[in-house]
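Suppose you are handed only these lines of text.
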Amino acid sequence: MSRRYRVAIVGAGIGAQHVTGYAANPDLYEIAIICDRDVARATALAATCGAAVHADYDEALLARTDIDIIDICLPPFLHFDAVRRALEAGKHVICEKPLCGSVAEADALAEIAARTGRVLMPIFQVRFGNGMAKARHLAATGALGKVFMATVETHWSRGADYYAIKWRGTKAYELGGAFLGHAIHAHDMLTTLLGPIKSVSGATAIRVNPIETEDCGGALLEMQSGALAMVSVTLGSANEFTRTRIMTENVTIESAGEVYMSSKEPWHFLPRAPKDQAWLDAALAGAPCGKEGFDGQLALLHAALQTGAAPPVTVAEARQSLELVTAIYHSARTGMRVELPITQAHPAYQSWG
Ligand SMILES: NC(=O)c1ccc[n+]([C@@H]2O[C@H](COP(=O)([O-])OP(=O)(O)OC[C@H]3O[C@@H](n4cnc5c(N)ncnc54)[C@H](O)[C@@H]3O)[C@@H](O)[C@H]2O)c1
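From them, the structure of the protein bound to nicotinamide-adenine-dinucleotide can be written out as follows.
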């Protein structure tokens, strides 16, 4: 019989959207605790889901034996330690993006999860949309053929109101800028579809807001397959969209441009001659569409916990996202093209800062 897992959500900002994701899966999860040192914020969120309130992320919370999963929705600089402590307390752990503050920390967390035998699932909920599911189906079945070129545009708008939350826009607390905090979802989707990256040339700039971390940037990616990808991010666009285009031997794919859930339908799939619409319709048949966003990622996690399979987002995939950020920042700083993977020997392995 399917087990219902009891969850403590730590951090009541984006934690509110996690609540919605668990609530969409009521047979799979029970939200037992909302933890936030801003007790009024925790109390307001707990009232929406019938959870108890805990004031601080401390040993008393971690020592509870009636909690199966700790879901970390804290500011980025707290992630590594919060995840480490929860794993070592014997909990399964979910953690918001970015998983941690360096490739070295990602490797350390993978080691701790393996040692403790607990599941650590990074959040990349944007990946779970039905337009993206169709593109993944084409990639998984070989229907894309040879991939030529991709472009990814994360063109959003952020101003002083957004940066009123003090950790944002700071190197010490947010740990990075638009590549780490905003474009990370669209770039996760890119590598999910196109596979590993071979090399990166990047540039970053602070042009939009008076902050410490980049709010504009671009990078040229050479994929291991030989395909190329151009990615751009800005937080100073008058109209906001996130758009992925992938040009392959058999098909051109374009996402709808939806800002945050850019994986949602409608994605456009155009057959490229000599392939035709009938071929494309057949190739798209059977794409596993289902629950989207947090609802979808959390439902798939439950299935993985039941069977012992890998979670729907792995630490290795979060490491890959952090490798890309590391490579872009290192390239921007040195003017050099950076080869991946980022190993222990790389000067930016311990810190991209
Ligand atoms: N997946 C997404 O699409 C998405 C969207 C937004 C934010 N995020 C990520 O979620 C994380 C949180 O972002 P946010 O916008 O919700 O931030 P936030 O500042 O709004 O919320 C963080 C909360 O953590 C609480 N907190 C801090 N230290 C604590 C402690 N020691 N114990 C208990 N509570 C503590 C704060 O009081 C605050 O309420 C970040 O890593 C961010 O990158 C992800």
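What can we learn from it? The two ends are 48 Å apart (CA to CA). The first strand starts at residue 5 and ends at 10.
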